[in-house]
Each structure stands twice: as C-alpha cells, then as structure tokens.
C-alpha cells in the first residue's frame, strides 16, 4: 500500500485533485454540509461460518460464566459473523495503519488562500502572487520576489494609485491597474471587496501573459474563501 | 435545463455501467424525470438491462436520421426512468459513431432529446476516447467510479488530466461531481485501509460520502437484466445507490443555501 501511495501516478492524481478544488471544479463540498457517517453494508451472513452470538459471548464473560456457557467459546482471533456485523458505521482501518496525515488542501484560511494562489499561478503561468488587506497586511503569498511585507506595502501604494487614476479618468469603480517593467515583466493589481473593506490581489507575470481571464476566475474563489473564514 | 452527468472511468470493471443504471433508477424513484443514455459503442448498459430487447434502435438511428427520439427511447416499468441505447453498432459503425461525435452531431442529438428531463446520466465506454470527450463537453458534471485496488487508483491521474483538459478546452462550467468508491468489500482490511488512505490524501470534498459495496446481487441483476432495487436480494447494494442519489440531491440543496448566503433571499416563491 505504501509503495502505491508513494508512486508518481498517485502523487500526480493528488496534485491535480488539489488544483481542481482550487479552481472550484468540484461539486459543492460534502464537508460544508457536514459529514454523514459512511454506511456499511456487510456481506450476507451466509458467507460466514456459524459462530456464537454476542449475547452468548457476553454471557460467557460474566462472573458465573461456567454456569451459563452452553458451548465452548471459539479462539479469540476467530472471526464471527456477528462481530463483522457489529462493525461501526465508519470504515475502520486495521491497527497497523500509519498515523493520519492532514489533507494537503489545508484547513486554515491561509493554506486555502495559498493553494488558490498556487493553482492560479500554475494555470496562468504567473511568476508570483500575493493577497493583502487594506492595511497592507499580507494574507497569503506564492513566490513573492522580495519580502511579503514589502510587496504588501507596495500593493497599498498601487491601490491608492488605482483609486486616483480611476477618478482622474472618470472611472470611479476602477478595479485593476497594471505596471509594465522593462518590457519584460508586469505587476497587476486587482482590487476586490472583502466584506466592507477592500482587498488586493497582486500578480507578477511576463508581459506577454494575458492574465485577465485567470485573475477574474480566481478572484471569486479568493473572495469566497475569505467570506467563509 | 437538465443536469447532465457523464459517468466515466479509465479502468474497466469498476461498476461504471452498474452505477449509471442503478443511480439513474434510484434518482428517478426520488421524483425527478431521468434519462439514461448508453453512449458506449459496446452497449454495456443496453446489455445489462432488457432495453435492447424492448427496442434495438438507438443513438445510431438518430445519427443516421432513420428514427425520431420518441421511437428509440424506452421507459422503465416503474418510476420516471427512460433509456436511450446506442442501437446495433457493428464494427464498421463504431468509426461512423466516433466521426459523428467529432463533427458535433452526437452533441446536437443528445441536447435535443434531453430537454424534458431533470437528470441525464451518460454511460461512456471505458477509457478515454472522442466520445467520452464529447460527452464530458456537453455535461454539467462527471462521476468517476473507483474500485479499491491499486490499478484503479493509479489510473486516476490520467482520468483527472483528461477531465481538466476537457474543462479548459471545451466546457469551463464542467465540474467533478465526485469520485465514487465502488465494489468495496468492507470486511477486507486491505480495501478499507486503501480507501481510508486515499481519502486522507485527496481533498475530502472530491469524494462521495456514499460507498457502493460489492454484492453478489450485482451479477444476479445483470443476469436478470434489471436494477438492484428491483431484486429482493439486491436490497443492500440498491440502498447504497439510493443513498448516493439522496447525497446528490443534498448537494444541490447545499448550493441553494449558498445562494441564500449570497443575499438572494427573495423568499420561497
């Protein structure tokens, strides 16, 4: 089992699955609805060898067992149909199972945002991306070229420039601004609302990359993650 | 607009056709009008049911313009389940079938016959093909049955890559309805351990909570050309598919709740 889990095919499948979740390409999460216990459908009892019922075993284990016991108990390790039927409704792994590991998706908001940024950069071919709040505090980053705090502060400067440039050109609800650097790279800032306050998604990519579609697709997902938090 | 769901798998023998028929039947018993389409040239779903005996014509006749939809669709004895088979596909017609799919005619035919249904389940041929691509391209979502064995799990990467490609190139609104563990033996420590390990490694929302157990009644259902729920001995496995249908409906209710959260609370009517 371990070798299968370590195989490249398995790792690739997990990676694609995480990407699909980040892209909202998976139907509504079961986890959002709360888990129902898995239903167990035991094999028909006819396929098992007959054995004593649980009541008989309980009686045999009672203090006056020798008086109540009508037939000898089987060896402790022998499987019984009632024991199989009495399995809990959640699938149980054998005792030798390795310890549980957290799902790669992550359970914290920062992990989810980082995963979303990672998936967006993979799909769009971006060099890096960062999400900051309206105070310049970085909420998540992927491949930030310099310290996240520095980029976060710069995002606020760009955000202010976006608001002023928008007013200047009569576009009061301007949402994005782009700066080309040396005909090679560009920095794109997308403003979005986190509840009542603005937030910023900053993307760094090559100038020939058309980032608009990918940014617009991802912004909704990012807003959803922030909203759920 | 119907919800069109393609059931597809890279590996054979994972209960793909059984899932289409039994899930389709279970969903129809919950109330919605359901159409099952057998888009696999080998007509697996047609053989697993007695639909071919009732009407041997199917998609092939529609593609050739030799029949109308009403002439080729078969209705189940009970429930709101209809069935559209492939028709008698001979070896040379498999190529015709794929060419028509490639030209977009299969898409047009399927869209034209699905309008009056709430749910449409499409059974595709095992593996990746033009027909599978076309079916995914016209679908709302995809279900991938997954048997608890190493080969099935290893083949998942190719299936997900294929799904991702269809989504990027042909259908941006396509979603993965879920991976469905089928043919499971809950009394086997190996299978139980594999299922738990796989579920822990993948994002949890990618799996259905319902797991379809292996049951000898599957074989009996195939032999008697019916669905599990119609067999007295198929109660357990049939109930699992009913659970799956309920789970899918619950997901849709969760989406409705999501709409309310977003402020679309305009009342019940």
Strand order of the largest sheet of chain A: 2-1-5-4-3
Q: What is the number of helices of chain B? A: 13
The sequence of SSEs of chain A as H and E is HHHHHHHEEHEEEH
- Measured by DSSP, the beta-strand proportion of chain A falls in 15-25%
- Compressed to H and E, one letter per element, the order of chain B equals EHEHHHHEEHHEHEHHEHHH
- What integer is the average pLDDT of chain A? 71
Strand content of chain B: 5-15%
**Overall helicity of chain B:** 40-55%
Low-confidence stretches of chain A: 30-104
Oligomerization:
heterodimer
Largest sheet of chain B, in brief, is: 7 strands, mixed
Structural class of chain A: alpha+beta
Number of E-state strands of chain A: 5
Spans of at least 5 consecutive residues with low confidence of chain B: none
Features:
heterodimer; A: alpha+beta; five-stranded antiparallel beta sheet; 9 helices; globular; B: 269 residues; 13 helices
Structure in words:
The complex is a heterodimer of chains A (229) and B (269). With 229 residues, chain A is an alpha+beta fold. Chain A is 41% helix and 16% strand. In chain A, strands 2-1-5-4-3 form a five-stranded antiparallel beta sheet, with helices on both faces. In chain A, a hairpin with a 2-residue loop joins strand 4 and strand 5. The two termini of chain A are 36 Å apart. In chain B, helix 1 (16-29) packs across helix 13. In chain B, strand 3 and strand 4 form a beta hairpin. Helix content of chain B is 48%, strand content 13%. In chain B, strands 3-4-2-5-1-6-7 form a seven-stranded mixed beta sheet, with helices on both faces. Chain B has helices at 16-29, 44-48, 51-54, 59-64, 69-72, 91-103, 105-114, 130-137, 150-154, 156-169, 189-201, 217-223, 235-261, and strands spanning 3-7, 34-38, 73-75, 81-84, 119-123, 141-146, 175-181. The chains are: A alpha+beta (229), B alpha/beta (269).
């Amino acid at each position: 089992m371990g070798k299968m889990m370590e195989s490249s095919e398995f790792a690739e499948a997990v990676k694609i699955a995480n990407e699909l979740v980040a892209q909202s390409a998976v139907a509504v999460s079961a986890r959002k609805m709360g888990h129902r216990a898995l239903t167990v459908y035991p094999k028909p009892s006819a396929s098992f060898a007959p054995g004593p019922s649980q009541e008989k075993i309980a009686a045999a284990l009672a203090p006056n067992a020798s008086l109540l016991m009508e037939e000898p108990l089987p060896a402790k390790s022998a499987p019984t149909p009632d024991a199989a039927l009495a399995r809990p409704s959640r699938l149980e792994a054998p005792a030798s199972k390795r310890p549980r590991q957290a799902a790669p998706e992550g359970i914290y908001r920062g992990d989810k945002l980082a995963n979303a940024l990672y998936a967006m950069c993979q799909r769009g071919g971006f060099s890096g991306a960062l999400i900051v709040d309206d105070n310049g505090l970085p909420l998540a980053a992927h491949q930030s070229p310099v310290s996240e705090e520095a980029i976060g502060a710069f995002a606020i400067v760009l955000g202010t420039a976006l608001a002023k440039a928008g007013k200047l050109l009569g576009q009061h609800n301007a949402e994005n601004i782009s700066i080309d650097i040396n005909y090679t790279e560009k920095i794109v800032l997308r403003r979005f609302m986190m509840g009542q306050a603005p937030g910023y998604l900053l993307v760094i990519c090559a100038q020939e990359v058309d980032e608009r579609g990918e940014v617009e697709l991802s912004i909704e997902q990012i807003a959803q993650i922030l909203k759920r938090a | 607009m119907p919800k069109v769901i393609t059931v597809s798998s890279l590996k054979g023998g994972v209960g793909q056709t059984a899932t289409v028929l039994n899930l389709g039947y279970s969903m129809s018993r919950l109330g919605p009008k359901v159409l099952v389409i057998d888009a696999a040239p080998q007509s697996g779903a047609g053989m697993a049911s007695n639909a071919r005996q009732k009407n041997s014509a199917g998609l092939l006749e529609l593609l050739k313009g030799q029949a109308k939809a009403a002439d080729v669709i078969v209705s189940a004895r009970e429930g709101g389940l209809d069935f559209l088979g492939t028709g008698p596909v001979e070896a040379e017609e498999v190529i015709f079938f794929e060419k028509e799919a490639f030209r977009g005619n299969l898409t047009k035919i399927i869209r034209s016959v699905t309008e009056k249904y709430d749910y449409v389940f499409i059974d595709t041929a095992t593996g990746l093909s033009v027909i599978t691509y076309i079916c995914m391209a016209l679908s709302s979502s995809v279900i991938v049955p997954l048997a608890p064995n190493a080969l099935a799990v290893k083949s998942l990467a190719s299936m997900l890559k294929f799904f991702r490609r269809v989504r990027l190139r042909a259908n941006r609104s396509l979603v993965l309805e879920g991976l469905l563990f089928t043919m499971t033996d809950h009394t086997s420590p190996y299978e139980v351990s594999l299922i738990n390990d796989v579920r822990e490694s993948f994002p949890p929302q990618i799996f259905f909570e319902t797991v379809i157990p292996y049951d000898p009644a599957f074989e009996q259902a195939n032999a008697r050309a019916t669905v599990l729920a119609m067999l007295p001995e198929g109660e357990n496995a049939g109930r699992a598919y009913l659970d799956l249908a309920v789970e899918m409906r619950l997901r849709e209710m969760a989406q409705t709740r999501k709409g309310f959260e977003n402020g679309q609370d305009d009342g019940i009517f």
